[in-house]
Amino acid sequence: IKYLQDKAKNENLYLRLSVEGGGCSGFQYIFKMDESPISPDERIFEKEGSKVVVDEGSFELIRGATVDFVQEMIRSSFAVVNNPQSESACGCGSSFAVKNFTSNPALD
User: Per-residue DSSP letters for 65-100?
Assistant: First the structure.
């Protein structure tokens, strides 16, 4: 995150993580570098000047997980790893199924 802030010459950039319905496993992680105002109901995680911001609904689906930067041969990207709320994930790791989905269905 600091590298991206430095490259953009913008110390106000932070990583926004959200979870949306979709992907091959039911829910997908969405990562976005952002500088828009942070709402009072969003969670802010900060380390060494780098911020990750998560809305309350998404937080419930990733509580206890780790956000990491993964470098592979084909791509480099942010990733959610070791998500205790996830029952299974797709092969690329960008989508997941929630544990006990039948007892906690998504409400529209």
Answer: -EEEEEE-SS-EEEEEES-TTEEEE-TTSSEEEETT
Contact 2, 14 (CB under 8 A): no
What is the model's pTM? 0.78
Return the closest-CA partner of residue 66 out of 56, 85, 79, 54.
79
* Lowest mean per-residue pLDDT among 1-5, 59-63, 65-69, 78-82: 78-82
Edge-to-edge strands, sheet with 95-98:
43-47, 50-54, 14-22, 26-34, 95-98, 86-89
pLDDT at 97 over 70: no
DSSP tag of 10? -
Helix (H, G, I), strand (E, B) or coil at 3: helix
